[in-house]
Design goal:
Largest sheet: 8 strands, mixed
Oligomer: single chain
CATH superfamily of the largest domain: L-asparaginase, N-terminal domain
Distance between the termini: 43 Å
Number of strands: 16
Radius of gyration: 20 Å
Number of domains: 2
CATH class of the largest domain: Alpha Beta
Mean pLDDT: 91
Shape: elongated
Strand content: 15-25%
Structural class: alpha/beta
Length: 320
């Protein structure tokens, strides 16, 4: 019988209506969840914290990742499940994917609907995540997000709907597989998964999203604040308005690491356009590129890379 450790962090999956009659608050304890789960897998619960996803921080996520890594070193533990608030679940999952080296499965899940709702999905998602974490087929896939019976790679998964039960998807790629009853189906494996052995995260790293006609005030403020890193969610395959280029060059002169991601949230970077502000100008400026990563994930990666790199060359290698 496989032994699965469930690490709870809070979020909608572990909430119920408070005694004051207000909204859903983190009160549901692991013992109450256990009675609702299917038999056949040995479960152990451990509370890491009890906060909504919107209260989670990268520092908390790194501490959680270290706890997951330590748990997976025990021979009796076949896999780990992490329950998490959906708001920042994808960022925590990606950081765990970057820093945890164990081959055993790690499945993160949550709930789109609270237990006060008639269509609460927390128990079904947790049961599916447990089955994934207990499956030998999930070994070596890295951190996974299991939601609405779909299995997503942490690097690709994004929250794409604020209310639907199918809250997560992998734009441009699709899920790795599915949970069908007690069966786990893996259709493909993640490509070019990356790991970064970071002793710490470098904060703050700012994330700026490009919009039509956007001015450079936010970028200028980040430079003046002396942040160690900036992620720009650029247009398409990596394009900025021409009036952003002088400030971009100024950031690089100040030795601020600048990473370009696409505001599309998925897809590679690069184009053949020759106009000012296109990909070729960004490449010449010396920025780093994060293809196939959303802006929030590129920010997590830059924090980890800055915490691990001992030189500018090593930092660039993480994004090559």
């Amino acid at each position: 019988m496989p032994h699965i450790l469930i690490i709870t962090t809070g979020g909608t999956i572990s909430t119920r209506r408070g005694p004051s009659g207000g909204g859903a608050v983190p009160l549901l304890k692991s013992e109450e969840l256990t009675a609702l789960l299917p038999r056949g897998i040995e479960l152990a619960f451990e509370e890491f914290t009890n906060v909504p996803g919107s209260h989670f921080t990268p520092a908390s996520a790194l501490t959680l990742a270290r706890r997951v890594e330590a748990a997976l070193q025990h021979s009796e533990v076949a896999g780990v499940v992490v329950t998490h608030g959906v708001d920042t679940l994808e960022e925590t999952a990606y950081l765990i994917d970057l820093v945890v080296t164990a081959e055993k499965p790690v499945a993160l899940t949550g709930a789109a609907r609270p237990p006060t709702s008639a269509d609460y999905d927390g128990v079904a998602n947790l049961a599916a995540a447990i089955r994934v974490a207990a499956s030998p087929a999930a070994r070596g896939l890295g951190a996974l997000i299991v939601f609405a019976e779909q299995i997503h790679a942490a690097a690709a998964a994004q929250m794409v709907h604020a209310q639907a039960r199918e809250a997560f998807a992998s734009p441009g790629l699709g899920p790795l597989g599915r949970v069908e009853g007690e069966q786990i189906w893996i259709a493909r494996r993640p490509v070019a998964r990356q790991q970064i052995a970071c002793p710490r995260l470098e904060e703050p790293v700012d994330l700026l999203r490009l919009t039509q006609g956007a001015d450079v005030r936010q970028l200028r403020h980040s430079i003046e604040d002396g942040v160690p890193g900036i992620v720009l969610e650029a247009f398409g395959g990596g394009r900025l308005p021409p009036w952003w280029l002088p400030q971009l060059s100024d950031a690089i002169r100040h030795r601020i690491a600048v990473v370009i991601a696409s505001r599309c949230g998925a897809g590679g970077l690069g184009d053949e356009h020759g106009y000012v502000g296109a990909y070729h100008d960004l490449r010449r400026a010396g920025v780093l590129f994060a293809p196939n990563l959303s802006g929030p994930k590129a920010r997590i990666k830059l924090m980890a890379a800055l915490g691990a790199a001992r030189s500018a060359q090593e930092l660039r290698a993480f994004f090559s």
